[in-house]
Amino acid sequence: MDHAIAFASAAPRAVQDLRSRALALLERPFNDLLFEAQQVHRQHFDANRVQRSTLLSIKTGGCPEDCGYCPQSRRYATGVEDEAILPLADVVAAATAAKEKGATRFCMGAAWRGPKARDLEPVLDMVRAVKSLGMEACCTLGMLKDGQAEQLRDAGLDYYNHNLDTSPEFYGQVITTRDYEDRLATLDRVREAGIHVCCGGIVGMGESREARAGLLAQLASLDPQPESVPINQLVRVEGTPLAGTDEFPWMEFVRTIAVARILMPRSYVRLSAGRTQMHEAVQALCFLAGANSIFYGEKLLTTGNPEAERDDALLASLGITIG
Ligand code: SAM
Ligand code: DTB
Ligand code: SF4
Questions:
Q1: Can you tell me the distance from the alpha carbon of 32 to that of 171, in angstroms, rounded to the nearest whole number?
Q2: In whole angstroms, how far apart are CA 130 and each of 139, 201, 309?
Q3: Which tens digits make up the pLDDT trace of 293-310?
Q4: What is the pLDDT of residues 154-211, one digit of tens each?
Q5: Hey, whose CA ends up nearest to atom 6 of ligand 3?
Q6: What residues act catalytically?
Q7: Which of 5, 37, 75, 78 is the most exposed place for a label (fewest CB within 10 A)?
Q8: Half-sphere exposure of 44 (CA within 13 A, CB side)
Q9: Which residues 6+ apart lie within 8 Å of 234 measured at CB?
Q10: Quick check: 290 and 41 in contact, CB under 8 A?
């Protein structure tokens, strides 16, 4: 399949319609938008359940890519070192601890442009080990080449995370070392291998509301829609090109979650990076807007995440159970 053509012409009308719809939704009065999102949410999910995934960086830093938000790119002086891949025993220990705390999915991230053949072998062992603990396994390893998705599937991988990150027109201002079509090609490989797709993006990078509508339209136009949609708020890391970006208004973040919920009614929408800077009242609004998944545990990949006990207390106070 020619992805340049797919991207340019696969039902362009549908993407354009979705973009107009997303923009109109983003512009609605806040209360109307949240009301609609909550109604859609209740048609497909238990409104008082939130799924929890724990992240582990299995290969940190030294990445050749230039993603302007990322502390793991070797091009930026962020203090993140280029480390070797973790030993299997460390991964098993982290997954066991995550399971004991109540996470149902274990997500392993690597700072690669994509895995080389020799990189994938140890990851396959990690996937098998996580599965043998009775957890769902997810990986985010960058772009996949022919056959690699099938290898991951055969090891038992449930989900592959690969984000579109932003709208096609804003994308070039953030990343130059891979293009949008490359991302769509990897998503196709994952889907064709029968692995569940986890695909979302980042907001708060200085993009316009129109660009946020563009991202949401691209995500919603994936057919079938991704099972899991992480919405990250930019974590502004010192040393990255986007470190000086203006603070993102919390109500715009909540709106983005609500529109993701409405446009992708059956997807798990994950309130992802950025929670340490987010008031708990805002997180509660995100749940009201239809977010029904979080990253759980003190660390994302290299940056912080709320303490697990703090999240337990927040969810308990809202009457939310683990789903
Ligand atoms: N290297 C692989 C890739 O880029 O596909 C996998 C790991 S990468 C860190 C996974 C995702 O983390 C990125 O696509 C991006 O959406 C998110 N991310 C990275 N740095 C971030 C930051 N500072 N704030 C918010 N999200 C971030
Ligand atoms: C996703 O969309 N967000 C997660 C996960 N997928 C891999 C990563 C967030 C990373 C935040 C910056 C860091 O901790 O390095
Ligand atoms: Fe590398 Fe992924 Fe970070 Fe981009 S987002 S620099 S590909 S680790």
A1: 30
A2: 11, 26, 23
A3: 999 999 999 999 999 999
A4: 999 999 999 999 999 999 999 999 999 999 999 999 999 999 999 999 999 999 999 9
A5: 73
A6: 63, 67, 70, 107, 138, 198, 270
A7: 5
A8: 17
A9: 69, 202, 203, 204, 205, 242, 245, 248, 273, 274
A10: yes
Interatomic CA distance for residues 1 and 192, integer angstroms: 12
Q: Is cis: bond before 224, omega within 30 of 0?
A: yes
SS3 for 304?
Answer: strand
**pLDDT tens, position by position, 274-287:** 999 999 999 999 99
**pLDDT tens profile 236-292:** 999 999 999 999 999 999 999 999 999 999 999 999 999 999 999 999 999 999 999
Q: How far is the CA of 29 from the centre of ligand 1 (A)?
A: 31
Average pLDDT over residues 12-39: 96
Q: Look at residue 5 in the predicted model and tell me its pLDDT.
A: 40
